[in-house]
From TrEMBL:
Its main location: membrane. It is found in: Cell membrane. It comes from the Bacteria. Keywords: Cell membrane, Membrane, Transmembrane, Transmembrane helix. It is a multi-pass membrane protein. The chain crosses the membrane at residues 5-24, 30-50, 59-78, 90-107. This is Uncharacterized protein. InterPro entries: EmrE-like (IPR037185), UPF0060 (IPR003844).
């Protein structure tokens, strides 16, 4: 379930940040900011749902979530912006996912 929360949080964060990018850099209507703010609030809510014993662990896992965020960003790049990631993008994302998995899946002692 944690991985699904991180994927959903990544998509919410990317969509929220993209709305600001679209407004500022692509000169879209300021109305793009409203759903962006909702997405960013959803991002924070989803991250708070991660089952962990301490907020610090959630945000240490948030660092691990960075690997998922990177992969999701490349998916956004390809699917939304129609720019295909190159082999270096994919290799870097794979390394990040491996690193994120070490943090997320490590056995934690008492």
């Amino acid at each position: 379930m944690t991985h699904l929360l991180y994927v959903a949080a990544a998509l919410a964060e990317i969509a929220g940040c993209f709305s600001f990018w679209a407004w500022w850099r692509l000169e879209k209507s300021p109305l793009w900011l409203a759903p962006g703010l909702v997405c960013l609030a959803l991002f924070g809510f989803l991250l708070a749902l991660v089952d962990t014993s301490a907020a610090g662990r959630a945000y240490a896992a948030y660092a691990a979530y960075g690997g998922i965020y990177i992969a999701a960003s490349l998916g956004w790049l390809w699917l939304v912006e129609a720019v295909r990631p190159d082999r270096w993008d994919l290799a870097g994302a794979a390394l990040c996912i491996i690193g994120a998995s070490v943090i997320l899946l490590a056995p934690r002692g008492a």
